[in-house]
Amino acid sequence: MNTKWELIEPNKPLAQSLSVEFKLSPLTTQVLINRGVTDTAKAEEFLRPRLAHLRNPMEIPNVEKAARRLLEVKARGEKVLIFGDYDVDGVTGTSILLQTLRFLGIDATYYIPHRYGEGYSLSIDAVKKIAESGIKLIITVDCGISSLEEVAEAGRLGLDVIITDHHNLPNQLPNAYAIVNPKMIPYDHPSEHLSGAGVAFKFAWALLKIAGEKDSVFLTSLLDLASLGTIADVVPLNRENRVLAAAGLNLINQRKRIGISELADAAKIGDRISIRNVNFGLAPRINAAGRLEHASKAVELMVTDDPVKARELAKELGQINTRRQGIGKDIQEEVFSRLDDNYIQQNRLAVLSGADWHPGVIGIVASKVVDRFSRPAVLIGVTDGVGRGSARSIDGINIFNILETCSDLFTDFGGHAGAAGFEIDADKIPELTKRLQAEAEKRISPEDLRSKIFIDAEVDLSTVTLNLVKELDVLDPHGEGNPVPIFSSRGIALSNMRTVGADGKHLKAKILGIDMIGFGFGNLGKALSYDKKYDIAYHLNANEWNGFEVAQLALVDIREAKR
Fold first, then answer.
1. Cβ distance 385 to 397 under 8 Å?
2. 488, 536 in Cβ contact below 8 A?
3. Beta carbons of 258 and 461 less than 8 angstroms apart
4. Do the Cβ atoms of 226 and 90 come closer than 8 Å?
């Protein structure tokens, strides 16, 4: 692999100090330092995340004002509408607020727009329909921070709007009754990078406090939803997000929420639900509803207490996800067939369009293009003269800024550094492609396109034991901002090499008596030699075989050692 390895500079004195303090190996504490944990207090919080580490929700601006407005609604016997987003974060955040309002006796319903008929966040048409229904208060979840015109229209129609969101603040904020967004806290704060579900949880907490509800049982019952949204939305898993993810995963594994339990069973997840299970088993099924049909199916699954209904909905989401996978596979095959060596050599940004590519799937395919070809990707599905595009990027390249140079061509546009979406008239796609490729030539260097691996530490394999591998579990849960550690060892001789799996897709070998598995590395089976030595980059994990657990290296990259 033509991958650049970057070893993170070790801090041996600090690693040794934390090692003594917490009775951990210096290898584990060096990983902590690499994650920005550089003192005893931070290490204590990181290694032992507790609900007590969550800050008072009233520290988020406007929380109390918004909560008191909702309690006024209860006193007047009015109805509230929760306006959510259609992804996992929006679905779980909507479910948190829906259950909280109903727990407090507030008459609440919810509305999630259709991804294609209505698009993201509030719309003028939706606001008008809500006003016509007689509702006087809208509270958004995971959206609304950029809805200037829509909030203004709501005001003209006599509706108050409370915005709960976590996205970056625009230059001009909507004129809402209250905006609850941790990005508004004017200093570094543990709540700053909460997901939309995390914000909903903190708001629910504030609402319960102001309502005088002192029993914490209901509030803690919402942690599984907050954890799902936090993990799926790829926010940094540190500080408050780490607390929510860890506590929520514990609750998820207790299987108390019938909808999540049935969804896990439908996904054939075993007894233990991990972050990986959430990312690859639960989240895709929840997302699939909003991608192909309507996210309300996922909300109903999250809030129901009817086992029969939950089982039916979980099965339906599984079927929708299977259909989504089939659609994605077809699009991916077409996209990859067009990205030949000549195209990759000539273009630093992949821009492709296709007839009837499903807009709910092309973002996933764009991510696969990024992974395979190590360059940003823009895919556009064209239906009835309208192109709907999804863009994904690599580290260090802001795809939003690149697309923004062509904003005059879009009828709708939004996103952030790593991902963006837009709508465009089909006849403007050739001009868009030309301009994006020119912009990419200016902004993206060949070095930017070289994939990188950040090595946490170089390891002497003679020190690797099952106990060490188990100790590294204290770094869980892993995710954005806290990736699974990657280690390296140099000058390694391989033994017992063989390919395994369907069509010899995977590679197995032994190194100093330790098993190594290289998922997807089977094609290297004939290229590697017993007569040469190699540098390897890998994860450390435990593997169970014949009832025994052993330490195992999970290969990330391999290259011939320099002489």
1. no
2. yes
3. no
4. no
Placement of tokens 């106990």 in the chain:
467
Structure tokens at 449: 């396109």
Q: Are 157 and 180 in contact (CB under 8 A)?
A: no
What does the buried/exposed string (b/e) look like for 430-439 if buried means 16 or more CB atoms within 10 Å of the residue's CB?
Answer: eebbebbbeb
CB contact set of 191 (below 8 Å; sequence gap of 6+) = 55, 59, 60, 182, 185, 198, 202, 239, 240
Contact 425, 387 (CB under 8 A): yes
**DSSP for 246-278, written as a single string:** HHHHHHHTTT-SHHHHHHHHHTT--S---HHHI
For 357-403, what is each residue's pLDDT tens digit?
A: 998 899 999 999 999 999 999 999 999 999 999 999 998 899 989 99
| Cα 177 from Cα 460, distance rounded (Å) | 59
How many Cβ atoms sit within 10 Å of the Cβ of residue 551? 19
DSSP E strand stretches across 403-533: 410-415, 419-425, 452-455, 457-458, 487-492, 495-500, 506-511, 514-518
Calpha distance 195→418 (Å, rounded): 16
Residues in contact with 129: Cβ distance below 8 Å, sequence separation at least 6, in sequence order: none
Q: Structure tokens of 496?
A: 């017992």
3-state secondary structure of 80: strand
Cα–Cα distance, 375 to 257 (Å, whole number):
40
Token couple for 489? 């060892």
Q: Please list the rounded mean pLDDT of every run of 10 residues in the chain (563 residues).
A: 87 96 97 95 93 95 96 91 94 98 96 80 92 94 92 96 91 94 92 95 97 91 97 89 96 96 94 91 94 92 97 96 93 95 94 92 93 94 92 91 93 80 93 96 92 94 95 92 95 93 90 93 89 95 86 95 80
Q: Is 143 helix (H, G, I), strand (E, B) or coil?
A: coil
Helix extents (H) in 487-533: none
For 215, the 3-state DSSP assignment is coil
pTM: 0.90
Distances (CA, A) of 311 to 270, 280, 295: 17, 19, 17
- CA-nearest of 74, 55, 56 to 64 is 56
- What's the chain's average pLDDT? 93
Q: In whole angstroms, give the CA distance from residue 31 to residue 43.
A: 11
Cα(563)–Cα(558) distance, integer angstroms: 15
In whole angstroms, what is the distance from residue 378 CA to residue 370 CA? 10
Residues 6+ apart with CB under 8 A from 443: 397, 401, 402
Tokens of 332: 């991916």
| Contact (Cβ atoms closer than 8 angstroms) between residue 317 and residue 263 | yes
Phi/psi class of residue 251: alpha, beta or left (left: φ > 0; alpha: ψ in -120 to 50)? Answer: alpha
Task: Kindly state the DSSP code that residue 349 receives in the 8-state scheme.
Answer: S
DSSP-derived 3-state class of residue 531: coil
